[in-house]
Amino acid sequence: MPEGRRGAVRSTAAHTAVLRAAAELVERVGFERMTIEGIAQAAGVGKQTIYRWWSSKSAIVAEALFEGVLFPESFLTADTGDIAADLTTWLESVFRYLRDPAHAGLLVSLIGGAVADAEIGLRLTERLGAAPSSLLLRLEQAAADGRLAGDPRIVADALIGVIVMRILTRAPVPDADAAALVALVLGAGSGRPTY
Amino acid sequence: MPEGRRGAVRSTAAHTAVLRAAAELVERVGFERMTIEGIAQAAGVGKQTIYRWWSSKSAIVAEALFEGVLFPESFLTADTGDIAADLTTWLESVFRYLRDPAHAGLLVSLIGGAVADAEIGLRLTERLGAAPSSLLLRLEQAAADGRLAGDPRIVADALIGVIVMRILTRAPVPDADAAALVALVLGAGSGRPTY
Amino acid sequence: MPEGRRGAVRSTAAHTAVLRAAAELVERVGFERMTIEGIAQAAGVGKQTIYRWWSSKSAIVAEALFEGVLFPESFLTADTGDIAADLTTWLESVFRYLRDPAHAGLLVSLIGGAVADAEIGLRLTERLGAAPSSLLLRLEQAAADGRLAGDPRIVADALIGVIVMRILTRAPVPDADAAALVALVLGAGSGRPTY
Amino acid sequence: MPEGRRGAVRSTAAHTAVLRAAAELVERVGFERMTIEGIAQAAGVGKQTIYRWWSSKSAIVAEALFEGVLFPESFLTADTGDIAADLTTWLESVFRYLRDPAHAGLLVSLIGGAVADAEIGLRLTERLGAAPSSLLLRLEQAAADGRLAGDPRIVADALIGVIVMRILTRAPVPDADAAALVALVLGAGSGRPTY
DNA sequence: TGATAATCGAGACGGTACGTCCTGTCTTTCA
DNA sequence: TGAAAGACAGGACGTACCGTCTCGATTATCA
C-alpha cells in the first residue's frame, strides 16, 4: 500500500487540457504573448489548477514539449550505416521545416522559452535531434566505430547550434548548407568533398 | 537652409542616461524582468521620452549593445597568422567569460532579447565575435588563403552556435572544448591533430 | 502661485463616472456583492484609477453618499415651529421610504458599508436626518428654546437608532410608530398626549 | 446498542468545534475577514462538513450567538422593582463593555453579520438585552403595571438603537448618557429630573 | 523679441495579466 | 459510511506595467 494520501486526485482531464491549450497557444500567438490566464480559459480550467501543478508557463511548455503534445515532429531518419548521408537527410528535413515562417516563429518562441527555463532548451534539443536523444546516441555510436573524428557532444552542439543560430537570426537555411555542415563536422576522413 | 525645424532638440543627456540605465538593468535583473518604467525611473527620464525615440525595450537594448554601453567585452585576439591558434584563444576567452554565472546569466538574457528582436541577435553575435564582424572577416580571409576547408559563414555559425547552445542549456564550457571545436570546424587539413 | 505640481491632473470624468457607477451598483446588487472590478468596468475606467484615488470600495460609497450621488433623498420638512409635528412628518416619510423593499435593501447594504467604514455611518445619518445635519440642528434649537427635555444628541441617536434597528431586523415600520416614537423622545412636557 | 448502523456517526465534536472556531475567528479577525475555509481549518473539519450543516458563515455565527459560544456576556441585572434604576444599571454595563475597543470591534463585526443575515441581528439584540429577550419582557411588564408610558417595543428599539448607533459610528459612550437615555424613554412620569 | 513648436520630467489614463485567496461542489481515502 | 483531505471551475483581489495622453516648464528657431 502506498503513502496514505486522502482527498481527490489530480484530474487527468484538466492536466491534458492544459498541455493541449498551451501547445495550441504557443503555436498561435508565441511563447511570450501566451498568458497563463489565456491557457486557463482555453483549457476550461481554473487558474489555480494551473498554479497547483506548474510553477510557470515555461514549465507547462517544457512538459508539453516532453510529452510530445507540442512540436511532435520527428526528424530522425533510418540508420543506413552511412552517418554522413543520415545526418544530411536529417538536417535537410529540419531545414525544410524551418522554411515555413510559422514553424520558424514557433522555434524562435521556444528558444524564448529556453531562456526562461533551461529544461525547455533540453527538451527542444531532443525534439530537434529526435526523441530520446537519438542524435547524440547515433553520434556516439559513430565515434565508437571510428567513423567520427570529433567529440560527439561537441559535434551535436555544432549541428544543433547552427540550426539555433539560423532560427535566432532569422537567416535562410538553404539545403546546400546541410551537406556542407555535415561535411564540416565529420571531417575530411569521412570522404566529404572539399568544394 | 534645409528642413525648417523649430523647437527644442533631442537631449543627449536623456539619450545616454536611458542607454546606461538599460544596460545596468539588463545586467542586474535580466532582459525579461526589466521594464520600460524601470528604465525611465532609473534614468530620471519621462516614459514618453523613451517612447519618442525607441519603439520597444529590445530596441533600447539593441542600441546599447551596438554602442558598446552594454556588454563591452572584446574577445578578439591578434592575428598571428595561425588561424587555429587564434580561434582557440578566442574561444577560450569566451568560455572563461561564461564561467562567471553572472556573465552567463547576462548572455541568456540577451538571447531572450534576440528572441524578441533579431537585431539583438546580430549585435550579440558581433560582440561575441568581436566588433565589426571580425570573426567572419578572419574566416573569410582564411578561406580565401586556402587555410579553411569549409564555408566561412557555416564555420562561424558552428562556432557561435556551440557557444549559444552552452549558454542556453547552461552546460559547462571546459577549456578543452575550445581546441576540440576549432579542430572540428577547421578539419584535419589545417594541420591540427584531432586530439 | 500654488505648489509646483507637474504632470497630468486628475480626470473629473473618471472621478464622477466611478461615483455614479458605484451608486448604481450599490442600488442594484448591494454593497457586499458590488466589486471594485465591477465598478471599474461599469465606469469604463481602469482598476488602477480607482485604487489611485480611493482606498476601498467603502471609501467610494462614502464619497458617493457625501456628494449626494447615491441616496439623494431628502426627508427634511419645513420648520413649522411645532417640533413634534415636524419630527413626526419626517419620520413618517422615512418610514414610507423604507416600506419599499428595494429601499430597505439599499439601507441594509449601506449599514454594511458603515461596518466597513465609520464615515459611511456618519454620511448615512446625515442623509437620513437630511443634509447638513439638520436633524441635530433642529433638535439643538428646540433644546435651546426649552421645547426639548432631553440631550439633543441622545434624542437624535434614539430617533435614528430606531430607524436603524428596524432596517437591521427587517421589522415593519407602521406610520403609527412615528408619532409614538416622537412622543417618547419629546416627553409629556411637549404637550402631546402619550396616546 | 440501538439500530444496527455501521460506519461513523454524525460528529457532535465537529459541530461544536466549528462553532468554537467561528467564535474565536469573529473575535480575532472580524466577521467579514473570517472565511469558511479558515473556520474549517481551525476546527480541524472538512469544508464539506460545514456546508452540510450550515448554509453560510452568517448561519454559523448566528448559531454561535444563539448557543452562547460567541459573545456570552450577560448584561442583565436583577429586578429591583425600580425599572429606571435597573435599565440604567444595564445600559451602564453595556457601555462599560463597549469602551474596550476589542469589544466594540466585535460588535461592529456582528452588525456586519446582521446585515448579511437578519437572524444575527435578532440574536445580537437578545444578547445585548440579555438572554431570552428579557429586556422586552421587563418593559412589557412595566407597561402592564403602568410604570412605562411608551410602547415597550419602541422603547426597546430606542434603547438598543442608541447602542447600535454608538457602535456603528464608533462614538463614545459616557456613563452619563445611560441615565439620560433611560430618563428620555421612561418619560416625565417616572420621576426623571428635567436637567 | 515675441510667437511657434518641439522637447523634457512627471504622472494620470484605460487596459491586461499577474499570482493569491476564497467560494461552493465534487472525489477519494480512511477509520 | 460519514468525515477529513483536497482538487476542481470560477471569480475578485490588489499590484505591476503597458503604451497613450496631458500637463507645465524649458529650449530653440523663425518671423
3D structure, described in words:
Four copies of one chain form a homotetramer. Helices cover 65% and strands 0% of the residues of chain A. Chain A has ten helices and no strands. Chain A has helices at 12-29, 36-43, 47-53, 57-66, 83-98, 101-116, 118-128, 134-144, 152-168, 175-186. Chain A is elongated and about 60 Å long. Mean pLDDT of chain A is 89; it is low at 188-195. Chain A binds chain B through residues 32, 108-109, 111-112, 114-116, 118, 121-122, 125, 149-151, 154-155, 157-158, 160-166, 168-170, 177, 180-181, 183-185, 187-189, 194, and chain B through 32, 108-109, 111-112, 114-116, 118, 121-122, 125, 149-151, 154-155, 157-158, 160-166, 168-170, 177, 180-181, 183-185, 187-189, 194. The first copy, chain A, binds a DNA duplex (31 and 31 nucleotides) through residues 4-11, 14, 35-38, 40, 44-49, 51-52.
